[in-house]
Amino acid sequence: MNDASAIYRETRTLKPVERLRLVEMLLADLDQPDEQIDRLWAAVAQSRWDAHQRGELETLSHEEVMAKYRRR
Questions:
Q1: What single DSSP character describes residue 14?
Q2: What is d(CA 63, CA 67) in angstroms, rounded to the nearest whole number?
Q3: Radius of gyration of the chain (CA)
Q4: pTM for the whole thing?
Q5: DSSP 55
Q6: How far, in Å, are 1, 7, 11, 13 from residue 4 at the CA level?
Q7: Where are the chain's structural domains?
Q8: How far apart are CA 11 and CA 25, in angstroms?
Q9: Which DSSP helix (H) or strand (E) runs through 42?
Q10: Helix (H, G, I), strand (E, B) or coil at 31
Q11: Which whole-number Å values give the CA distances from 72 to 14, 45, 60, 61, in the listed order?
Q12: What is the pLDDT of residues 9-43, one digit of tens each?
């Protein structure tokens, strides 16, 4: 059994609110800036914007997008 499994079993004994606090702390710890990932996302965003500007992407209006989610 690895450490993560042992820790998980131990956390199962916590009250739900304490488990939620633990999850929040773990997620906050993982949510660290990463310049390489930021650069990659910026490149993707720029590429998509350029394709949109050239008319190469099909787009939907805000109303069309919202209507899709209202139907659910």
A1: S
A2: 6
A3: 21
A4: 0.52
A5: T
A6: 8, 5, 10, 15
A7: 1-32, 34-72
A8: 13
A9: helix 35-53
A10: coil
A11: 35, 28, 18, 18
A12: 999 999 999 999 999 999 999 989 999 999 999 99
Which amino acid would we find at residue 18? E
What is the C-alpha to C-alpha distance for residues 9 and 17, in angstroms, rounded to an integer? Answer: 16
Q: How many residues does the chain have?
A: 72
pLDDT-derived band at 3, boundaries 50, 70, 90: very high
C-alpha span between 15 and 4 (Å, rounded)? 19
The one-letter amino acid code at 39 reads: R
Going by C-alpha positions, the residue among 39, 59, 64 that lies closest to residue 49 is 59
Is the sign of the CA dihedral 28, 32, 33, 39 positive or negative? negative
Residue 43 to residue 37: CA distance in whole angstroms: 10
